[in-house]
Amino acid sequence: MKLVLILGGVRSGKSQFAVKLASAMPGPLLFLATAAPLDREMRRRIEEHRRARPPSFETLEVPRGVGEALLRAGAGYKTVVLDCLTLLVANAIGDRLRGAKGRVEAEIAGLSEAIDRMGASFIIVSNEVGMGVVPHTPLGRVYRDLLGQANQALAQKADRVYLLVAGVPLLIKGQT
Q: What is the pTM (predicted TM-score) of this model?
């Protein structure tokens, strides 16, 4: 299995499910975290995630340029968990609408290239944001649209896609 995409809402159990899947796969295991410690609350969340991660994973923290970072990290990894695409897209957009689509497309293209070139299996975590309300701001609407497009592109490429609801994984593409 080359690519598994795990979608769901906030706090639906996506990360735990991804780690559980990856832990049953061949190592060495790489956990690629995309969160940027922009404020105290986010730094606390990052620390909680670090403590909860099994010691069997090596960790690479990269808020942007994940494709290049993965290719530099080397081909020795057999399984890669990217947590999460949601923050990667937000980091690529930043607070600037101008050029946002191009920056996000470049991130997804770089990630896709790394998936294609590396001999590893990938498990990618992302939020499903298309089931909520229409965002109030233009930046929020652009974010929702670009994340939705990124999710669709990776779902097309994926061997399996899961939707997590209240901690319960539902296989929506592929076979077990």
A: 0.94
Number of compact structural domains in the chain: 1
Domain range for 149: 3-173
pLDDT reading at 56 higher than 80: yes
20 with 7: CB under 8 angstroms?
no
Q: What is the mean pLDDT of residues 125-152?
A: 94
pLDDT at 84: 95
pLDDT at 74: 75
Phi, psi dihedral angles at 32 (to 5 degrees) = -100, 110
Residue 49 annotated to the active site: yes
Catalytic residue chosen out of the listed positions 2, 49, 144, 173: 49
Residue the block writes with tokens 């780690």: 19
End-to-end CA distance of the chain: 11
CATH number at residue 140: 3.40.50.300
